[in-house]
Design goal:
5-stranded mixed beta sheet; about 425 residues; mainly beta
Length: about 425
């Protein structure tokens, strides 16, 4: 994957490397004017006084997302002691329909239709941080176009104001409107990626909308409900993935399809697909140059893997650096590879030996083998430390930290006040 310039969103996060997950940045409005100019040339001093005192959800920490009744709640916890830093709450109640004040574009939907649309009353959606203290929830819902009910997308403010962002349509009495499916926020490039899908032809176009200006550009085409219904955005670079590889994603950049995941190397040169079932971890290494050869904007189509091999450890992989993987196994295995090692165990051309697979040994581990259950491992944004949950065979567990280079034994970090909290990312 070709390296991209980091957006201001990533620079907000205190550590040097941040998961490109759910964050955006301050910037100009669509007409090029700054927020201060739109508010009557507020002075720097006055603007500073209006900045909320509460911490920002964009700060470094442990990010969670959960459903509380019909509300979507995002919470940030300290990675040092597990205390809550701040939280955001998006209610299912819609207070109004209008052009987004935060983005400066969009259109007001019919609020009466939204109130009867069950698709928008739940806890779905993806967080967009327009600035450290201004946030929106990206949602899919439905709109009536000339008597036809179609899928669209928009944003909801913390106050409940709804703005439709997907392009407006005008169709004749006998025309069929298109649907706008699977909106995903790409914070690296500050854009919303979605599919314009024509149900009549069963074809679609992957498109990108500039978050702040609203301009729409085409990235590529898709055909059939399988391809058009499966897109994802790689969190490190913002590269769009479509089709089979996209099954390993959810809208929140978590591992999605059963026990498979797609991750990218820190230098952006490799894409790794892993399937960790049946007693081993099956790895397929792809060159991003090859993956983007058909379309420089989307990883799509059939292309050959550079290497395929099996590790004897079962665990979801994460890149610690360009040639080292953390396997989220019970012992937190660490595997360092070279081109020679990959070539030696590669079966991409002759095929996998199902009877006598050539498992590559993984000898390094960060946690001693034992009866404890170790899970939910997260790499720090700078990839130097790992935080994981560990519990004995009976009784409550707690969170531990260990250096990614194995230079020290794991030590207890903290116990979260709410043991049921599910951490999504360490940002």
């Amino acid at each position: 994957m070709s390296p991209l310039t980091l957006s201001p969103a990533v620079r907000w996060l205190a550590p040097a490397t941040a998961l490109a997950f759910l964050l955006s940045a301050c910037g100009s409005d669509a007409d090029g004017s700054s927020p201060a100019e739109n508010e009557g040339d507020v002075s720097g001093e006055e603007g500073a006084e209006e900045t909320p005192d509460r911490p920002s959800i964009t700060e470094s920490g442990l990010f969670t997302s959960e459903c509380d009744g019909n509300e979507r709640v995002f919470t940030l916890y300290s990675a040092d002691d597990g205390t809550e830093i701040t939280s955001l709450r998006f209610s299912s109640e819609r207070s109004s329909a209008a052009t987004s004040e935060a983005l400066g574009h969009g259109r007001a939907p019919e609020i009466e239709h939204l109130e009867s649309d069950q698709n928008i009353t739940g806890c779905g959606g993806q967080l967009i941080s327009v600035s450290p203290h201004e946030h929106l929830l990206l949602r899919s819902y439905q709109e009536v176009v000339n008597g036809n009910t179609v899928d669209v997308f928009g944003v909801i403010s913390e106050e409940g104001a709804v703005t439709t962002l997907s392009p407006e349509q005008e169709v004749s009495d006998f025309g069929t409107p298109v649907t706008y499916r699977d909106p995903l926020y790409d914070p690296v490039n500050e854009r919303i990626v979605f599919v314009e899908y024509d149900t009549a032809s069963d074809e679609g176009t992957v498109q990108a909308m500039d978050l702040r200006g609203g301009q729409v550009s085409d990235l590529g085409s898709c055909e059939g409900v399988n391809d058009c219904g499966q897109i994802a955005v790689l969190p490190e670079s913002g590269t769009v993935v479509m089709g089979g590889l996209a099954r390993s994603f959810s809208p929140e950049a978590e591992s999605g399809a059963e026990s498979a995941v797609v991750v990218e190397s820190p230098n952006g040169e490799r894409l790794l697909h892993a399937n960790y079932t049946s007693g081993s971890t099956r790895l397929s290494f792809y060159s991003m140059e090859d993956a983007l050869a058909e379309n420089p904007d989307i990883v799509v189509g059939d292309f050959d893997a550079e290497y395929k091999l099996d590790l004897e450890v079962v665990g979801e992989p994460r890149f610690i650096d360009d040639d080292t993987l953390l396997l989220r196994s019970n012992e937190l295995a660490v595997w360092e590879f070279t081109e020679e090692l990959l070539a030696e165990h590669d079966y991409s051309e002759e095929g996998r030996d199902l009877i006598n697979p050539n498992y590559v040994p993984v000898e390094e581990a960060l946690v001693p083998e034992g009866p404890r259950r170790n899970e939910s491992a997260f790499l720090s944004p700078d990839r130097s430390e790992i935080l994981f949950y560990s519990a004995p065979q009976t009784g409550a567990g707690s969170w531990y930290r260990v250096p990614a280079d194995g230079s020290a034994e794991p030590e207890e970090a903290f116990v979260l006040a709410d043991p049921d909290v599910v951490i999504r990312t360490w940002q």
